[in-house]
């Protein structure tokens, strides 16, 4: 049965139709254990109860004689043999504790065709968030976005009329983080290329990040502060998303805003994060005394030593350390001040911090992070290497939207290569329309004044 979708138009004027087959369940290719597996206390915190959409664009290969839908569907079924908890369903027990019922029912899979070419995406500058017709390239099957008792992964493979294709994946964040998903996708790509087994075997072992007995909260964890009363900002207009490119010229301009002694002791990601937090705050025009927050997604995999996490651990293994300053401090003090806050927050994640975080979850009812005045940044450049053999690496591989569920204040770093061969980072940003205008003006002023690329070349795309 085929579902016809009417023509869809975006702000980039790219119009196309998507014909979708009826969603199906793909189950493991072989029988798998039927058991109940507890999530860790890092996995089942309230702030991770949402699904994350990702998307990958692949070019046509003249040597490809296989149907990408068939290849991906088969690889998915084979991957679920190793990652069989993904074929189960989440159940909630006492004290909101989550566990996976490994039923083997499978994950949702959609086969689709679109009457558009990859070149058309590129010509319309539509190969980065916000994507044209994203909701049709990753169709939200009715009921599938619930957290409990529903498939834990949704995948849609859309053939393009040029012979290229798109893989869109939405996964339940309680099950895994970006690193864990990259393990899953790497296994899929290896099996699609003919491997007999994954290079890195998946490891469950969620007890390694469970709370201690007795629980001992030893850190402040201000990212989980009680939410403040929400007041009108006077700038509550339509939200827009725009993606910005940061290459060598832009990073050089940012470095000119910092003292030499700090440049060599900071990574480019730390510099970029500081820059974005500061100028986003300027654009928002928040009350000068308002407390603004920057939350960083910091992996703890290398920090856990007693015991260490196994290489194939695919559960959530990160924290949201927070940097806090008033809007006045962020807008009036030099970028050096902001950068030091970022570095301090990042370095605060230690093994004891993670143990304390797990303990906090069980003692405080698994709270969500505080979103008041918050900006959340994550680095997902790891998705750029998802190679499906004859089709090679994706032209774009990364996050699908510049927001997390209903929280618009989130950005992700995505690896990107422009059509002229320049390599850099794409950062999608979501802001109220007026604030976005000010944000663009601020960035244009910095990059033009400091010798970076001119404004029109920085702004990639937008969507009302």
From TrEMBL:
Q: Where is the signal peptide?
A: none
GO molecular-function annotation terms?
Answer: transferase activity
Any keyword Membrane? no
- Would I find Transcription regulation among this entry's keywords? no
| InterPro entries associated with the record | CAT-like_dom_sf, Plant_acyltransferase
Family per record: Belongs to the plant acyltransferase family.
The name under which this protein is listed is (Z)-3-hexen-1-ol acetyltransferase
């Amino acid at each position: 049965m085929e579902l016809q979708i009417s023509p869809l138009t975006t702000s980039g004027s790219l119009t196309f139709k998507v014909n979708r087959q009826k969603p199906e369940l793909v189950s493991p290719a072989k029988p798998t254990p039927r058991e109940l597996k507890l999530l860790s206390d890092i996995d089942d915190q309230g702030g991770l109860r949402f699904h994350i959409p990702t998307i990958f664009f692949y070019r046509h290969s003249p040597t490809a004689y296989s149907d990408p839908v068939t290849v991906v569907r088969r690889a998915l079924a084979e991957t679920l043999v190793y990652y069989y908890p993904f074929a189960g369903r989440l159940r909630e027990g006492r004290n909101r504790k989550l566990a996976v019922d490994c039923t083997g029912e499978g994950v949702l899979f959609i086969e689709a065709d679109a009457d558009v070419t990859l070149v058309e995406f590129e010509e319309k500058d539509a190969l980065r968030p916000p994507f044209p017709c994203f909701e049709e390239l990753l169709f939200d099957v009715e009921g599938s976005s619930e957290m409990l008792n529903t498939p834990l992964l949704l995948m849609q493979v859309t053939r393009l009329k040029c012979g290229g294709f798109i893989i869109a994946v939405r996964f339940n964040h309680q099950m895994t983080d970006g690193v864990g998903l990259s393990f899953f996708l790497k296994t899929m790509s290896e099996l699609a290329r003919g491997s007999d087994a994954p290079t890195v075997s998946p490891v469950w072992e969620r007890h390694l990040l469970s709370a201690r007995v007795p629980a001992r909260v030893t850190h402040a964890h201000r990212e989980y502060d009680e939410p403040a009363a929400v007041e009108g900002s006077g700038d509550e207009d339509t939200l827009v998303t725009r993606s910005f490119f940061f290459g060598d010229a832009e990073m050089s301009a940012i470095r000119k805003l910092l003292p030499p002694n700090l440049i060599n002791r900071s990574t480019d990601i730390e510099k970029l994060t500081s820059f974005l937090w500061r100028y986003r705050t300027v654009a928002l025009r928040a009350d000068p005394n308002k407390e603004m927050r920057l939350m960083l997604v910091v992996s703890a995999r290398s920090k856990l030593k007693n015991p260490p996490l196994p290489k194939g651990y695919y559960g959530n293994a990160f924290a949201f350390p927070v940097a806090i300053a008033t809007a006045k401090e962020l807008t009036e003090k030099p970028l050096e001040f902001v950068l030091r806050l970022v570095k301090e927050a990042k370095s605060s994640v230690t093994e004891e911090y993670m143990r304390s975080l797990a303990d906090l979850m069980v003692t405080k009812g698994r709270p969500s992070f505080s979103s008041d005045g918050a900006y959340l940044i994550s680095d997902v450049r790891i998705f750029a290497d998802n190679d499906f053999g004859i089709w090679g690496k994706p032209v774009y591989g990364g996050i699908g939207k510049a927001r997390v569920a209903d929280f618009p204040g989130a950005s992700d770093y995505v690896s990107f290569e422009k059509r002229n061969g320049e390599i850099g980072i794409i950062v999608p940003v979501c802001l109220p329309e007026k604030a976005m205008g000010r944000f663009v003006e601020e960035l244009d002023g910095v990059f033009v004044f400091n010798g970076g690329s001119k404004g029109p070349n920085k702004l990639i795309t937008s969507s009302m």
